[in-house]
Amino acid sequence: MPTLLRPMPPTRKPQPSLVTKKQPAQQRATETYERILEVTAQTLADVGIERLSTNLVCERAGLTPPALYRYFPNKYALLSELGQRLMQAQNERVDRWITLEVFNGGVESLERAVEGLIIDTYEATVQTVGGVWIMRALRAVPALQQVRLASHTAVTQEQTRLLAMALPEADAAELQLVSRIVVELIYATVEMIFDEPLDVKAVARTVAGMIASHLTRVRPDAAPPRKAAGKSAAR
């Protein structure tokens, strides 16, 4: 019988470096660094992810490629820096809206806060040049997904901490899972608002109601009473 050859494992393309080569130390270098990022964001807004290139950024910024490569090795490093800045701007909204007082205020309090957070996160993205394209890049480009996931992990940890303070008797693992799902759901909701012609406030209100209602299921005293065993259960 012929020897069966094992299939070769799929080869993985090496991921491009996302690390900036050099941080600007002087004012002129800082201005060049920020100029590169500003032009990248505007170019991204104009042409999208696929057509974005370092050569196009250099052309629009009036720089030579070596001047850009002094700081950024490729377009993915540019997108990574823009992504981290957008994530930071969005995460600052979480700290404004979601607090221990909100959790302690009950379902209605949380519903109002989540609604406000979704709208505020949407507006923060609108106010960021190329914001929607940066969000899409963080989702679609494999090399950039870790930027998004690292940000979501940090927010999840903080929200889990707040929930544990508000609900000290609740299961810690469940609080962690709920927090992670909520972070992803809010992010996906903002993406959906950009992708479809939907009423921002209506979407935010609906999603907020869904999220807040789950709070009653997480509370330890919200579990349904168990059926009595034995004869009483049969009656």
Question: What would your notes on this structure say?
Answer:
With 235 residues, the protein is an all-alpha fold. It is built from 12 helices and no strands. The protein has helices at residues 27-47, 54-61, 65-69, 75-97, 100-104, 107-127, 131-140, 145-166, 172-195, 200-213, 215-218, 231-234. Helix 6 (107-127) packs antiparallel against helix 10 and helix 9 (172-195) runs antiparallel to helix 10. The longest helix is centred in the last third of the chain and has 24 residues, at 172-195. The radius of gyration is 23 Å and the shape is elongated. Residues 1-5 and 223-235 have low confidence and may be disordered.
Helix-strand blueprint:
Blueprint: H1 27-47, H2 54-61, H3 65-69, H4 75-97, H5 100-104, H6 107-127, H7 131-140, H8 145-166, H9 172-195, H10 200-213, H11 215-218, H12 231-234
Helix pairs in contact: 1-2, 1-4, 4-6, 4-7, 4-8, 6-9, 6-10, 7-8, 8-9, 9-10
Main beta sheet strand tally, sense and closure: none
Unreliable spans are: 1-5, 223-235
Shape: elongated
Number of strands: 0
Beta-strand percentage?
Answer: under 5%
Number of helices: 12
Report mean pLDDT, rounded to a whole number: 89
- What's the N-to-C terminus distance? 69 Å
Helix content bin: 55-70%
Order of helices and strands: HHHHHHHHHHHH
Structural class from helices and strands? mainly alpha
The Cα radius of gyration reads 23 Å
Identify the notable features of this structure and list them briefly.
235 residues, mainly alpha, elongated, disordered N terminus, 12 helices
